[in-house]
Amino acid sequence: MSGGMAGSVIQLLVYLILICLLAYLVVRYGLGRRFAFLSGRRMRVVEQLPLGPKAALTLVQVGHRYYLLAHQDGAVVVVREFEQLPEELPVPAGYAGQWSSPAADRLADWLEQIKEWIAKRRGRGK
């Protein structure tokens, strides 16, 4: 093989490796999905509530309608369809959700004390 032919083969192999790497990145990281906003979006996830490691409830807006979906292990079921967005549920007083614990309560008390201290300092400085 001549030097020119060997250079062409090496160049071809480099380009082939780059194309394969680019194809892998597109498939692996879904680069095409990152630019979905360019195609005009008609769907969005309004809220998602995990029920376990592989199960969740998802509220999805499609156009002017809302769908409550349940999904678990690859299966998706439409639980309910809404004409308008459902009302938010009231949060019970003193409810800290999943982060409620004695340590979280102490931290919340400590942060409240800091806020009060800052408010007093600002009041004195005026």
Automatic annotation (TrEMBL):
Keyword Cell membrane: yes
Biological process per Gene Ontology, one example term: bacterial-type flagellum organization
Keyword set, alphabetical order: Bacterial flagellum, Cell membrane, Cell projection, Cilium, Flagellum, Membrane, Transmembrane, Transmembrane helix
Cellular localisation: Cell membrane; Bacterial flagellum basal body
Primary location class: membrane
Xref: InterPro entries: Flagellar_biosynth_FliO (IPR022781)
Gene Ontology CC: bacterial-type flagellum basal body; plasma membrane
Regions that span the bilayer: 12-31
Similarity field: Belongs to the FliO/MopB family.
Protein's name in the database: Flagellar protein
